Amino acid sequence: MSVFEAGMMICFGVSWPIAAYKTYKAKCVKGKSFTFDILILTGYICGIIHKLFFYNDWVIWLYILNTLFLLTDMSLYWRYKKKEVLS
User: Fold this and answer.
1) Where are the domains of the chain?
2) CA 51 from centroid of its chain's CA atoms
3) Do residues 87 and 64 make contact, with C-beta atoms less than 8 angstroms apart?
């Protein structure tokens, strides 16, 4: 297990709930990039696959948790994006 990988995942893990909370409070997605979210999601999926097949350790749970936080933020994006388009 790499301490640096765990540190990176913890920092991202703190950032995603904050981003989702801000989106929820603002109910606005201006300035957010869904393409960026897809790229991050792809990276998390690659990290999970790597942990499953090559180096299974506890950091996989950070990848999974971060993926869930990111998916929450992405679902808020689509919810508020639809409302912005309809307005």
Assistant:
1) 32-87
2) 17
3) no
Q: How far apart, in whole angstroms, are the C-alpha atoms of residue 73 and residue 13?
A: 12
- Rounded CA gap, 53 and 49, in Å? 6
In this prediction the pTM is: 0.88
Distance CA 87, CA 83 (A): 6
- Three-state SS at 55: coil
pLDDT in tens, 32-86: 999 999 999 999 999 999 999 999 999 999 999 999 999 999 999 999 998 777 7
Q: How far is CA 73 from CA 7, 14, 28, 62, 64, in A?
A: 21, 13, 12, 16, 14
- pLDDT bin (cut points 50, 70, 90) of residue 2 is confident
DSSP 87: -
Q: Which token pair is 56?
A: 């299974």
